Amino acid sequence: MDRYRHNGGLRQYVVYVAFALILAIFSIILHDDGFLSSQNLLNIGRQAAPIAVMAVGMAFALAAGEIDLSVGSIVALSSLVAAEMVADYGFLLGALMALGVAAFVGLINGIISVNVRIPSFLVTLGMLSIISGIARNWNNLQSLPIRNDRFSAIFGAGGLGPISSLLIWIVIVGVIGHIALHHLRWGRHILSTGADRNAANAVGINTARVKISALVVSATAAGFAGILLAGRLSIGRHNLGEDYLLTVIAAVVIGGTNLFGGRASVLGAITGALIMSMLNNGLILMGLEVADQLIARGAIIILAVALSMREAKEV
Amino acid sequence: MSNTAALMADGISKSFRAVQALDDVSIELHHGRVTALLGDNGAGKSTLVKCIAGLYQPDSGRIFIEGAEHRISSARHARELGIETVHQTLSVIDPLDVAENLFLNREHTRGGWLGARLGLLDKRRMRTDCATTLSRLDIRIPSLRRSVGSLSGGQRQAIAIGRAVAWGQRIVLLDEPAAALGVEQTQRVLELITNLRDQGLAVLLITHNMEQVLSVCDEAVVLYRGKKSAEVKVADVTKDDLVAYITGARTNS
Question: Which of B89, B104, B107 sits opposite A198 (nearest CB)?
Answer without folding.
Answer: B89
